[in-house]
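does this look right to u?? zinc ion version
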Amino acid sequence: MVGAINKKIASSDSSFTAAPAIRFLYGSFSEFMSRTKATDEPFGIGPWPCLNQAAEHYKEFVVTRCVVTRCSDTGRPVGTFTCSCGFSYSRRGPDQSEEDKFHRGRIKSFGSVWIGKLKQCMKEGLSYRVVAKILGVDTNTVIKYASNGIAETIKESDKKPRPKVKKKITTVSRNSPKPRVDWKKRDLELSWEVESACQSILTDQESKPIQISIALIGKRVGKLRWLEKHSDKLPVTMSFLAKYVESVSQFQMRRVRWAADQMVGEWPLKRWRIEKLAGLRPDYSQEVSDEINRCIGHNRYIHTFMSLEGITSWLH
Ligand SMILES: [Zn+2]
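got this back:
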């Protein structure tokens, strides 16, 4: 009897305390669930849409492969989505809405379908701008891949899109203990480094100009050996370098512009002063001479403009 009463008290007692406890647990449980979801499935459950604008299945939910990594800066999840058409893109998560599924971050690889479409567009003689619109990328990307038959190289290596990790493991275990170098990736990365090294030389107004050569850039990015020994494996990098490497005449013209900039307050600009500051030898070419004339003419124009407008407008 006593036991039964005790039992009754105990059970009724628990029903009183259970409600807030369950609410508390439920609240934290749902929170826990959403947190777990955000950590484990920051991009939801697949399939995900293929965001390759060149593919017939564009925006269709055909991508089944998503590898989640962490952004080293923000700690946020980064999903890399790879489609069977060879197209691969990444984006930072977690997804907040269904629409986020159609948001494309960085393109990791274009794949054979995209490259095929690019080649077809180029064959049809469409402009870079139009092709960029068709393929859903910026114009520079089109130029990058369309020039110098690079498309061919990438198409070959992209013919059989395979998960990258698997590829690496098989290579390592079957062949040699030395991991195989991914020249395609190396080439793309190096092309950015090379371009920014060239840009920083061209935009440096402080120091006396130096001629852009393969040797100079190679040393600047610390990869001279690659440029010298493996230029055949670096088609993108080499095409960028070719754009920036200066002939004697081009370098002299840049020195002329630099010299004229140094004498910005002088008027009128004297040809011999430019020649001297630019370090020109007397046998320079006609185009260099034209550049000097252009700078002198520009200086004259600026001077006239300044005297007409009055210096006051610059001071206020
Ligand atoms: Zn696809």
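The chain has 14 helices and six strands. idk if thats expected tbh
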